[in-house]
């Protein structure tokens, strides 16, 4: 349920109203905009009498929100959320580029890629330390020592870091990570989402391989219901009948999410296609369609990468892509 307050409402009366709502075990989410203030009520609102609220002289209107996600709903929070990732803003007109190798492999590999992506304009460094691999025989990641190398690369380059958590038991190792990634395979690991909801760390929530947009927003809701509102959504391709690409990039998720939610949404064309030469055109499509950022896999020597080499750009290809993305962003600003 959302309650739209009258402009210049009496603060004292609002405080009384808040206490009355809290006494009914409702969580209140206040969103102050330029022209109106909105209270989003979360919890069991089925027994709340709308007409009583409507009758209050501080209230302009009351509306029930039919969608099952509340905190993630744009109706609760009309303005775009801007996430702060170690100094890098994402959302609300701030475009972020997260780039780096699929997996952290060594000090030299990570530092070489980190310097290169920074020089090309990336503002967040990615790198997998705990890797979700389809085969148990494939490289599983450097684990804790991979996170150490990411922290070192951050010291050297100043870039904030994003890396994937696969299991709650590793949470302590993520204490200094700027943005915790929940991968596609864990999008509905509800215990993990709940625990991340209790942390104050920003979370990058990837869309599950076969998840609908509503299911994805419900997973964001799990994190937000715990009190952590720093969620960024990442579309990374979904399973379809098409086999020419690894997955099918759902570009339409961008305008749909923008309409339904206030959360930033970024695009990962690397995992969506699995093919390096398709990454640039889809990165441009994402920028043009209104995405808040990109996640791109870059490797200094893709042919020797321990994971996802075929979809990884070289530093030179990444730099070329960044030039074109900037041109699209400039055009996007003028087209608005
Ligand atoms: C990744 O970003 O390294 C990754 C494994 O992505 P996804 O969860 O989208 O497959
Ligand atoms: Mn990868």
Task: Map the helices and strands.
Elements (H helix, E strand, L loop, with lengths): L1 E4 L5 H12 L4 E6 L4 E6 L7 H5 L4 E5 L19 E3 L2 E3 L5 E5 L6 H13 L4 E3 L17 H14 L3 E5 L13 E4 L7 H9 L4 E4 L6 H13 L5 E5 L17 H8 L4 E3 L1 H5 L2 H13 L4 E5 L17 H21 L1
Parallel strand pairs: 7-8, 7-14, 8-9, 9-10, 10-11, 11-12, 12-13
Antiparallel strand pairs: 1-3, 1-4, 2-3, 5-6
Bound molecules: phosphoenolpyruvate and manganese (II) ion.
Which features characterize this protein?
eight-stranded parallel beta sheet, alpha/beta, four-stranded antiparallel beta sheet, 336 residues, elongated, binds manganese (II) ion, binds phosphoenolpyruvate
- Assign a percent range to the helix content: 25-40%
Coarse shape: elongated
Regarding quaternary structure, what we see is single chain
SSE string: EHEEHEEEEHEHEEHEHEHEHHEH
Which class best fits the helix and strand makeup?
alpha/beta
Tally the helices: what do you get? 10
- Averaged pLDDT: 96
Bound compounds: phosphoenolpyruvate, manganese (II) ion
Tell how many strands the DSSP assignment holds: 14
* Major pleated sheet: 8 strands, parallel
Strand order of the largest sheet: 13-12-11-10-9-8-7-14
Terminal Cα span: 32 Å
Radius of gyration: 21 Å
Poorly predicted residue ranges: none
Kindly estimate the percentage of residues that lie in beta strands according to DSSP. 15-25%
């Amino acid at each position: 349920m959302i309650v739209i307050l009258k402009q210049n409402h009496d603060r004292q009366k609002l405080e009384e109203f808040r206490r009355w709502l809290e006494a009914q075990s409702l969580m209140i989410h206040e969103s102050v905009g330029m022209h109106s203030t909105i209270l989003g009520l979360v919890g069991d609102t089925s027994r709340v009498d709308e007409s009583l609220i409507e009758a209050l002289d501080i209230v302009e209107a009351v509306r029930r929100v039919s969608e099952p996600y509340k905190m993630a709903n744009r109706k609760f929070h009309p303005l775009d959320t801007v996430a702060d990732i170690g100094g890098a803003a994402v959302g609300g007109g701030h475009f972020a580029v997260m780039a780096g190798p699929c997996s952290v492999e060594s000090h030299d590999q990570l530092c070489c890629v980190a310097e290169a992506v920074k020089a090309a304009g990336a503002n967040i460094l990615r790198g997998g330390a705990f890797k979700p691999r389809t085969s148990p025989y494939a490289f599983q990641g450097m684990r804790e020592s991979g996170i150490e190398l990411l922290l070192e690369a951050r010291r050297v380059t100043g870039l904030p870091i994003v890396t994937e958590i696969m299991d709650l038991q590793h949470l302590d190792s993520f204490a200094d990570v700027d943005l915790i990634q929940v991968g596609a395979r864990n999008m509905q690991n509800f215990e993990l989402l709940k625990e991340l909801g209790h942390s104050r760390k920003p979370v990058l929530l990837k869309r599950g391989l076969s998840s609908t947009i509503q299911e994805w927003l419900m997973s964001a809701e799990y994190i937000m219901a715990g009190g952590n509102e720093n969620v960024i959504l990442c579309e990374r391709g979904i399973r379809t009948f098409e086999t020419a690409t690894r997955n099918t990039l759902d570009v339409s998720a961008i305008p749909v999410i923008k309409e339904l939610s206030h959360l930033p949404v970024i695009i990962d064309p690397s995992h969506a296609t699995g093919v390096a030469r398709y990454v640039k055109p889809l990165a441009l499509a994402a920028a043009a369609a209104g995405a808040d950022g990109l996640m791109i896999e870059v490797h200094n020597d893709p042919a020797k990468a321990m994971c996802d080499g075929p979809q990884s750009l070289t530093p030179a290809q990444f730099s070329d892509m960044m030039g074109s993305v900037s041109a699209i962003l400039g055009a996007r600003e003028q087209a608005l």
